[in-house]
């Protein structure tokens, strides 16, 4: 008998931003797999086993979870944000495609969540109110020249850009290089938002311009939003400025 | 005394996909503004006034809501999906920028939600598992040549593409023209997903390839996802195929 596997998006971190659907799906699992800090966000249920693994072992984790589902267990794999955006759903699909036949018979479900860029955007206005793209800045899984090509294409076509995985100890220079590259295509006045831990107690939203954006502000928990040439800053008396991308474009 | 205004993302439609934060924010409002079918999703609270308006009157609705907030009311503006993605948050920010001074003193908050592309993607695997863009196909607010430029730039740079507002009675030909254009940049085998009303009772997820994608399948409630050349279809015995975009790119 085959069990089932659900990949669950926990949202950006605040409990109030996790959906009832995600909570119900997690409560129905016998076993949970995921990166430790994400597992820590899931309410504890007696009798439910938890298997934490490092953030870089996604394919191994996916295969381990699928094996347990094939053996009949109700398995949950957790992701921060949305399960399908630079997260575990793609790793599980990849393991299903490349793994043994029974992996493709598992009852499989993905539960969406609020992805980081939406949570960050909400805290400063509506920077994603017009056409935008989402790009992982990690060059672990793709060559850096491809990242550069996509950044330039997006900027020149007028997309607002959301950068995931902007920086890490092993990738210290990529975000600075991305800013440097984008300064060739975009005005220096374009707003840049560093959104760290949006919606959580340790949230820090920092607004800069492309000309003065300092990559060292970002860490692994940061999603960086870079406006288009159309993106506006709205000054407010006694309040932080808002940033939005107008619905219309010339 | 100035009131406050929150723009609330209701998620894709299923009650279980609306966050507790959104429900709490809505319950705290004296007055709700929005497109009628979205207002219908909000649990009724005695004494709360509701003002439905047509989907195309976004800036007027934003100004009306801001005026009430300036007068001291607790006002909620509702959006389907996420409030910041092709939705009301940008319209309210625009009204704040262009309107009278008091509009910029209002206590303003945006509550994020699960946007349509995430809900659709979850129903078929992980098509947004790699770099992607989101683009409104409406040419009400931008010239069609700009849409074409963005479609081609995104396809040639290897972004998966999510199309919002793909078709309407007033815009019957745009989606077909977009497919036609994308066939010049992408292989015909690229998966195309028509995601209608994802997560709702009347959900309909249709999988096609770019070569045979038929634009007439889409309606106003559809979000269309178009894979990149790397996006994979995974056949499963006795189950619908999965679609995912691998985390790595060559």
Description of the structure:
Two copies of one chain form a homodimer. The first copy, chain A, has 250 residues and is an alpha/beta fold. Chain A folds into two domains: 4-114, Tetrapyrrole methylase, N-terminal domain (Cobalt-precorrin-4 Transmethylase, domain 1, 3-Layer(aba) Sandwich), CATH 3.40.1010; 117-244, 2-Layer Sandwich (Methyltransferase, Cobalt-precorrin-4 Transmethylase, Domain 2). Chain A has seven helices and 13 strands. Chain A has helices spanning 20-27, 36-39, 58-70, 88-98, 116-122, 144-157, 174-182; strands spanning 4-9, 31-35, 49-53, 74-79, 107-111, 125-126, 132-136, 160-164, 191-196, 204-209, 222-226, 232-236, 239-244. Chain A has a five-stranded parallel beta sheet with strand order 3-2-4-1-5, sandwiched between helices. Chain A has a five-stranded mixed beta sheet with strand order 7-8-11-9-10, sandwiched between helices. A three-stranded mixed beta sheet of chain A has the order 6-13-12, with no helix packed on it. In chain A, helix 3 crosses helix 4. The first copy, chain A, is globular. Chain A starts with a strand and ends in a 6-residue tail after the last strand. At the A-B interface, helix 1, helix 4, strand 5, helix 5 and strand 6 of A face helix 1, helix 4, strand 5, helix 5 and strand 6 of B.
